[in-house]
Amino acid sequence: MDDPYMPFCSERCKLIDLGNWASEKYVIHSPLTGEEEPEEQEPDENS
Ligand SMILES: [Zn+2]
After folding, report:
1. 8 Å CB contact between 23 and 29
2. Who surrounds ion ligand 1 at CB < 5 A?
3. Distance 18 CA to ligand 1 centre (A)
4. Residue 14: exposure state from Cβ atoms within 10 A (0-12, 13-18, ≥19)
5. How many Å lie between the centroid of ligand 1 and the Cα of residue 13?
6. CA of residue 37 to ligand 1 center, whole Å
7. How far is the CA of 15 from the centre of ligand 1 (A)?
8. Is the model's pTM score more than 0.90?
9. Is the separation of the CB atoms in 5 and 11 below 8 Å?
10. What is the pLDDT of residue 2?
């Protein structure tokens, strides 16, 4: 099969994976604090 998104199953999967990789690799969203802050999604309490 000619899958342009290999090794991903879809473009969406690829973008998600690349996004995760980039965020872990470069951590552009947090300053240099010397601490590793785990990325946890806040629970959605608005329902
Ligand atoms: Zn996938």
Report:
1. yes
2. 9, 13
3. 12
4. middle
5. 5
6. 27
7. 10
8. no
9. yes
10. 74
Q: Which residues contact 17 (CB under 8 A, 6 or more apart)?
A: 8
Calpha distance 15→21 (Å, rounded): 10
Whether 34 shows a pLDDT value over 70: the answer reads no
What percent of the chain is predicted at pLDDT more than 90? 0
The answer on pLDDT for 30 being more than 70 is no
Provide DSSP, 12-28: HHHHHHHHHHHHHHH-T
Residue 16, token pair as written in the block: 């998600």
CA Rg, the chain, in Å?
15
For 34: left if phi > 0, alpha if psi spans -120 to 50, otherwise beta; the answer is: left
